[in-house]
Structure formats: structure tokens, C-alpha cells
Amino acid sequence: MNESTLVAPAIPFLDLGVTNREIKNDVLEDVAALIDAGEFINGRAVSEFEEAFARYCGTTFAVGAASGLDALRLALLATGIDDGDEVIVPANTFVATLEAVTQAGGRPIVVDMSDDDWNMDVARAEAAVSARTRFIMPVHLYGQLADMRALQEIARRHRLALIEDACQAHGAERDGVRAGASGLAAGFSFYPGKNLGAFGDAGALVTNDEPLAEIARALREHGQRAKYVHDREGYTARLDTIQALVLLKKLARLDEWNRERTMIALQYLHGLAGVGDLELPPVASYSSSAWHLFVVRTCDPTRLMDFLRERGIGAGRHYPVPVHLTGAYAHLGYEVGDFPNAEGHAQRVLSLPIYPGMSPRQTDAVIAAVRSFFDRG
Ligand SMILES: *Cc1c(COP(=O)(O)O)cnc(C)c1O
């Protein structure tokens, strides 16, 4: 046998090729037509996508934005955040959650995660409410919804605005209610690697609140309510028309792609149960995850990651440092030990490959490699 036949083909951490190839030719045709029409800014595809995405999420409005960060920031600004308003956020999230808060003038109040669902601990969130708190911003991390029923209760009790960071949860749902539909507003990212990803940066906020949507629409475009009517200072944070064309094509396939992710996740949950010291992702009874990431916990994730990489299997860590311990947020004054669940979590997480187009055989190969790591000790 030839040496090369012994080498299993590589399994990347993320392969966008399958999904992109499905829509490539359609997109190229639409982009050619767009170039002829010259509708680069606020073209028809933007409002078409906004309508389709609002319908998908089960909200009345969607407002396209240039990124997920812009969507979250505009949601806070359009709600009327004032300088120094406190916004409760989880410690285990991507830095953009906090960027949105500080860049909108707010102060992030970090709370620990729950080990039950790996999302914001709702009891700790309520305990963190002060006289200055105006917002609560849960993150549906890895695609699993935070406990939105409990958070809605807390928001109602304390008169807080509930803004969802749904950047990892396109299509996740609970009792038929999708991510983005149970707060005052939500921000989504269409960064290429997200469940719904553009061919570049893009995002959107969704809401049922018409004034909020109108203000966000003005803010994303130099504060213009109408051409050269500037009631407030704004930004350049529009959704690009070319990206809207891509997103329209992809949105039509999102449910199918999310189902593929779910099948892979189920295969992992079955194949990795009881292996070594692995802790598998909790599946909350109330949530149907979008499975943006498949994250396991183990005592030495870096060794397992290196082991997999040596065998051509991609893996990543989301995220190795909890936000309160990053240099960017040192000024908030948090210390090691403040959020033990999130800190322990960050030390132990490892993300395995999961993407539409990943075959059951590839998933089995990842499972076999993980098992052999623990078999060898
Ligand atoms: C990706 C992401 C964002 C930001 O999205 P961008 O489009 O990169 O600005 C915000 N929050 C979370 C949790 C994310 O995963």
C-alpha cells in the first residue's frame, strides 16, 4: 500500500465550500445584474432581505447593518442608551458583546455563566441589577438560547430593556419562538463563518418596535431620516447590497443547513458519551440549538487540539480568555476569581468541526480520533 493512501483526508474546523458552491452561480448572476443597475447602496436586495429575515425570525422589522457589532450597537443606541447606563452581559462571550455596550456609551456589568446551559446565569443577572441598570444583554452562545423566559421576567420586574446577542443563534428556537423574537431587539452577525454568513461582513438587528427600527435605520446612515435630514448624529453602518444578495440566497437554505448541523451534533453526542473526561454540551430542554459550534470540555483542551491537528482535524477554542480578563476590558476592574464558572469554562473548552456538508463519515473520523486520544491516556 502506498504511503499516501494511509493518510486520511483532512477535516477542517470549518469548510464553507459546500454551502458557498450551492449558491455561487446564482449570486454571480445577481451581482452582474447589480453592477449593471448600479444599486450598490440601499439596493432593492437590502429591503427584500430585511423583509425575509424579519419573517424568518418572527419579528415585524429587520434593519440590515454592516456587521453584528453594528447591529448590537445600533440596537442599544436606538433604544436611547445614556452614557453610563449599565448593561448586564455574560462573562463567557465574544468580545463584540462588550464592544457594543462601551461603544454605545454604556457600562458592561459582567455576570457569571451557568454550568447548566453554558449561558448567562439568570439568578446572577438579577442579583446584578442596580439603580443604574437599563439593559440586559444575554448571548445565545454556541447557538443555544439563553433562558429567555426567565430573562423576560427579570426584565419586566426591573423595567429593563432585553437585547439579545443572537450573533451565533440564527434559527435557534424555544417553543416555536426563534432567537431574536423575545427581547426588545436582537443583533445578528452574518460574518462568513456564522450559520447564516455573507461573503464579507454584514449584520442585522430585528425588533417589533417600529420607532426603534426607524431610529436604527437612520443611525446606520449618517443619522438621516430622509435625504439630508439629520436629526441625530449617525454612522456608516449599512448592509451592503451585494451581501444582501448573498444572504437572500442563503436564508432560503438556512433551516436545511441547521438540520445538518443538528444531525452532526447528535452523532457527536452519541459517539462521545462517556469518553475520557469529556463533558458534552448541555442541551437545555427548552432550547433547540442552532449548533453554531460544538464545544466540549476537557482538562487539557490544548493537548487534545494538537493531537487532532496532527491527524488533520481542525479544532478551535471559543474562547480561551473570558472577556473580563482580556486587556481590552481590564479597565472594568474585574479580577481572576470573579466569575469562576466562566474562568473554568474558558480553560477547558474545545470546539470540534461542525458545518453543513460535513459527512457522517467525517464526523465518525473525528469521534474516533478523540476516542483514541483518551485511549492512549
Ligand atoms: C460574531 C459575534 C459578534 C460580532 O459579529 P461581527 O459581525 O464580527 O461584528 C457578536 N457577538 C457574538 C457572540 C459573536 O459571535
Quick overview of this protein structure:
With 377 residues, the chain is of the alpha/beta class.
Overview of this protein structure:
This protein has helices spanning 17-37, 44-57, 68-78, 96-103, 122-127, 148-158, 210-219, 241-251, 254-271, 301-310, 340-348, 360-376; strands at 61-65, 86-90, 107-111, 133-136, 161-165, 173-174, 177-178, 185-189, 203-207, 224-226, 229-230, 294-297, 349-352. It is of the alpha/beta class. The strands form 4 sheets. The chain has a 7-stranded mixed β-sheet with strand order 1-9-8-5-4-2-3, with helices on both faces. It has a two-stranded antiparallel ribbon with strand order 6-7. Strand 2 (86-90), helix 4 and strand 3 (107-111) form a beta-alpha-beta unit. The model is unreliable at 1-5 (pLDDT under 50). Bound molecules: pyridoxal-5'-phosphate (PLP). Residues 67-69, 93-94, 96-97, 139, 165, 167-168, 189, 191, 201, 203 line the site of pyridoxal-5'-phosphate (PLP).
Strand tally is 13
User: What is the radius of gyration?
Assistant: 21 Å
Percent strand: 5-15%
Give the overall pLDDT as a whole number: 96
Which segments are poorly predicted (pLDDT under 50) over 5 or more consecutive residues? 1-5
Class computed from helices, strands and strand pairing: alpha/beta
Individual helix count: 12
Main sheet, how many strands, which sense, barrel?
7 strands, mixed
Binned, the helix content reads 25-40%
Report the span from N to C terminus.
Answer: 30 Å
How does the overall form come out from the CA principal axes? globular
Trace the largest sheet across and list its strands: 1-9-8-5-4-2-3
Bound molecules: pyridoxal-5'-phosphate
Order of helices and strands: HHEHEHEHEHEEEEEHEEHHEHHEH
By oligomeric state, this entry counts as: single chain
